[in-house]
Amino acid sequence: MKIRFLLDENLSPKLKIAVLRLNPAINILRVGDPDTPPLGTLDPELLNYLELSQRLLVTDNRKSMPGHLEVHWGVGRHIWGLVWLRSSGTIRTWAESLFIIWEASEAEEWIDQVDWIPF
Q: Which domain of life does this protein belong to (predicted)?
């Protein structure tokens, strides 16, 4: 199964546009889009949504998300992957990295995996 992304609300909507320019077939949504959690959704609820919707989270939230993720895993729950963006990156480098992840891997490979985009 191809990866389906969910961008955290703190990320620019321009990132979604940049990814879709690389390949419009990529299934990428942003928090606040139709059929996604609304803006302001708390991290634990977001993690539950990700598990049920089988989406990989793309975020720059390194403050509260790690603790919520540990609690989520601690009660036997799962995620379909999480990618942290480094603040030194650009929309272009992030979009290209997400495209490569989408092109080179399958969603099942990302279950309970956490990684960094190194830019």
A: Bacteria
Model confidence, pTM: 0.95
Would you say 108 and 79 are in contact if contact means Cβ atoms under 8 Å apart?
no
Residue (of 84, 79, 86, 68) closest to 109 by Cα position: 79
Cα(9)–Cα(6) distance, rounded to whole angstroms?
Answer: 9
Lookup: tokens for 45: 């609820």
Cβ neighbours around 82 below 10 Å, total: 23
Three-class DSSP category at 72? helix
CA distance 10 to 71: 22
pLDDT, tens digit, 9 for 90 and up, residues 48-68: 999 999 999 999 988 999 999
Sign of the CA dihedral with 34 first, then 39, 45, and 48 last = positive
How far is the first Cα of the chain from the last one, in angstroms, to the nearest whole number? 26
Q: In which band, very low, low, confident or very high, does the pLDDT at 77 lie, cut at 50, 70 and 90?
A: very high
Instruction: Answer for the pair 99, 66: CB distance below 8 angstroms, yes or no.
Output: no
Residue ranges of E strands in 4-80 = 4-7, 27-30, 56-59
